[in-house]
Amino acid sequence: MHRRTWRFVFFALAILAGFAAGLGYGWLIHPVGYHSIDPQTLQIDYQTDFVLMVAELYRAEGDLAMALARLDFLGGSPQVTINDAIDYANTRSYAAADLQLMQDLASVLRQALDGRD
After folding, report:
1. For residues 17 and 77, what is the distance between their CA atoms, to the nearest angstrom?
2. How many CB atoms lie within 10 A of CB 5?
3. Are residues 84 and 68 in the same domain?
4. Residue 39 neighbours by CB under 8 Å, 6+ apart
5. Whole-angstrom Cα distance, residue 42 to residue 79?
6. What does the mean pLDDT of the chain come to?
7. Are residues 109 and 53 in the same domain?
8. Average pLDDT over residues 88-108
């Protein structure tokens, strides 16, 4: 029985040592370096999800200025961003309620920007 206990202790220590070595290597010796991670570089599916979240927040808050600020995070024209997201959502068969949210935001944005001119 004594020998079996030592095997278990040695096995547990080996697992812990391997875990510690892996963390040390990953965090200290060779940490991950992120390059070119601007929001504009997101794939269109992630951008569409982001626009959908902005539309949901706009529905909940009703703050168009904040929605515009959030859309500016993706860079480019907010109208183009929303239209691209709606086009992608149409091709990928997003839920009708989600499409309607994005279309409502696009409509409000279009009215607000047309009123500025």
Report:
1. 52
2. 9
3. yes
4. 50, 73, 74, 75
5. 17
6. 91
7. yes
8. 95
Q: Is 9 helix (H, G, I), strand (E, B) or coil?
A: helix
Q: How many domains does the chain contain in total?
A: 2
For residue 117, is pLDDT > 60? no
User: Which of 73, 77, 105 is closest to 89 using CA atoms?
Assistant: 105
Supply 26's token pair.
């990953």
Give the pLDDT confidence of 45-62 residue by residue, as tens digits.
999 999 999 999 999 999
DSSP code string of 68-107: HHHHHTT-S-HHHHHHHHHHHHHHTT--HHHHHHHHHHHH
- Residues shown for the chain: 117
The whole-model pTM stands at 0.69
- Give residue 39's identity as a one-letter amino acid code: P
pLDDT, tens digit, for every residue of 64-88? 999 999 999 888 889 999 999 999 9
Please tell me what DSSP assigns to residue 61: H
- Compute the C-alpha angle 105/75/42, nearest 5°: 95
Residue 47 and residue 77 in one domain: yes
